[in-house]
Design brief:
The protein has 520 residues and is of the alpha+beta class. It is built from 12 helices and 21 strands. The strands form 7 sheets. Strands 1-8-7-4-3 form a 5-stranded mixed sheet. Strand 14 and strand 15 form a beta hairpin. Helix 4 packs across helix 5. The chain starts with 6 loop residues before the first strand and ends in an 8-residue tail after the last helix.
């Protein structure tokens, strides 16, 4: 601060808004009203690069890991705990080093000016989404932090409306949250994650920071900027979905992200409030995956992020848990500080492209590990339970169909050969549906079904890998002879006592000795 290399922002009313229990706090925000009626808005990001220097052992390991992996019961950190949850984390009531994006925004959330600089902040509050929402909703609160959050929320709504007008997509996926027992870490409840206004508040300003930084680093490093793109989906990816929507007189316009966003808004059924969310879930599955890339390896017209409807994008806001953000911080520092030294890798587009491939691979692996963790805990939660629930058909296969159960956010497959070698339903390729032999029953996308959900305890082999259990879904309605459960069979299933096996032992096995467990 004394040398002028950092801006002293400790007097600002900065706060962080995160999920409950978050200790690796990457970001904090503030908003202050200016004398001219505009707003000074700041997004302050943990200054990880102050501690993680290029070509050190810590940097090499972080580059290899590329991302923090989030499992149901634990987190596998990209950085050492001392950094991620202490020295870098923007916790409240302590001074912390940050990299700040500062804008002057008018009342319509238009950017008047933007600045980027290293800083020192002193967060006044570490809030959860619920706590921040409570401050917005409580008209009796008028302290500076609450006023700041309300101003941020007002501006975020305008930023979001502008993104939607530009064609940004609001997609969806069934995300579940487990509540674990303190001692055994056994799952005792499972629910869909609920999003609040404050989730969107944080998201909008993180997006604004990422876009602003992307423009800045590309301006200074046109051949070696670390960016993120989302390719436009192939039109044929929507064929099955379009076919299923046609009988409902609904058509998705896939010519542009704006056309798709508008057609998704129109995809509603008055008597089924969940239908639009389901269409968005299935639309998400038609998309290409977003990718990191080096700007010097593609032409500018390939930079576009389809889902966010922006011409350029990067990741800057989570350097504690993503190595791409660490690289972007170094690029931004070199762009805004002429005296900042930087490693040759920042201008080596071959090395940057190679690291991009590692980032993309590690990101996919982290996603798969997270899904496997949810699968494990879902099986543990439903062990010994027989759940009779309504669901929606989300995929039609030649030998079965997937069912999403909205009340739990879980998905499984009903196989059509469950009671013998002869399929009870035949696949109709032209209609992309499953049809009974007498054509009295047809099952296609979006159809309401009733299923019984259990955990299949039957061993799949004689080794320890047989401890892996699958969710078993059995059809109840519509009634398909030879496939659907009868009331007698349903009563028998409910009366069956589950096999007793310690859940905590299974968790200990799969987390302590993963090499002994096959296909987990």
């Amino acid at each position: 601060v004394v040398s002028g290399k950092r801006h002293d922002l400790r007097s600002l009313d900065v706060c962080s808004i995160d999920p409950p229990g978050c200790t690796d706090i990457d970001d904090a925000l503030h908003a202050t009203r200016l004398p001219n009626g505009n707003f000074q808005v700041g997004v302050h990001i943990a200054d990880v690069t102050n501690f993680v220097k290029p070509k050190t052992a810590m940097d090499t390991e972080a580059a290899y890991r590329s991302t923090t992996v989030y499992l149901v019961d634990r987190r596998i950190d990209m950085l050492p705990e001392l950094l991620g949850t202490n020295l870098c984390s923007l916790m409240s009531n302590v001074d912390r080093l940050a990299f700040s994006c500062m804008w002057e925004l008018d009342n319509d959330a238009n950017i008047v000016s933007a600045q980027f600089h290293k800083s020192v902040i002193h967060s006044k509050a570490s809030l959860t989404y619920d706590q921040a929402q409570a401050r917005i909703d409580d008209s009796a609160q008028h302290d500076t932090i609450t006023t700041s959050i309300r101003d941020l929320n007002m501006l975020a709504k305008k930023l979001r409306a502008r993104r939607m007008e530009a064609g940004a997509l609001t997609l969806s996926s069934p995300e579940v949250r487990f509540r674990l027992e303190n001692d055994s870490q056994d799952p005792v409840d499972v629910e869909l994650k609920a999003l609040k206004e404050t989730n969107a508040l944080v998201e909008e300003f993180m997006l604004l920071a990422n876009i602003s930084v992307a423009r800045k680093i590309y301006e200074h490093f046109p051949d070696a900027a670390m960016l993120r793109r989302h390719p436009e989906p192939l039109a044929q990816s929507f064929d099955s979905l379009q076919q299923a929507l046609k009988p409902l007189n609904i058509q998705l316009e896939t010519g542009s992200s704006l056309a798709l966003a508008q057609s998704l808004d129109r995809a509603v059924l008055p008597d089924d409030p969940y239908f639009n969310n389901l269409v968005r879930i299935l639309t998400t599955r038609c998309m290409m995956q977003a990718q990191y890339f080096c700007s010097g390896t593609l032409t500018p017209d390939e930079f576009r992020h389809y889902g966010l409807a922006t011409e350029i994008y990067t990741h800057f806001t989570s350097p504690i848990r993503r190595y791409a953000d660490v690289m972007v911080h170094r690029l931004l520092h070199a762009a805004v500080d002429r005296d900042a030294g930087y490693a040759s890798e920042l201008t080596n587009k071959v090395a940057m492209a190679e690291q991009s491939d590692v980032l993309n691979h590690r990101h996919r692996m982290a996603q798969q590990a997270g899904r496997a963790s949810v699968e494990l805990y879902t099986s543990l939660f439903f062990k010994g339970k027989t759940v009779d629930e309504e669901g929606y058909v989300t995929q039609v296969l030649q030998n079965g169909f997937s069912v999403l159960i909205p009340s739990y956010g879980v998905e499984g497959i009903v196989y059509t050969t469950s009671k013998g070698d002869t399929p009870a339903l035949e696949y109709d390729k032209a209609a992309h549906s499953l049809v009974s032999s007498d054509a009295s029953v047809s099952i296609g996308l979006f159809q309401h079904v009733r299923v019984v959900l259990q955990v299949d305890d039957s061993p799949v082999s004689a080794n320890v890998g047989s401890m892996r259990r699958k969710l078993l879904l059995q059809l109840v309605e519509p009634h398909v002879p030879g496939l659907s459960l009868t009331e007698t069979e349903l009563s028998a299933i409910r009366a069956t006592k589950p096999t007793q096996r310690s859940e905590s032992q299974i968790i200990e096995l799969v987390t302590t000795h993963p090499e002994q467990v096959q296909s987990i």
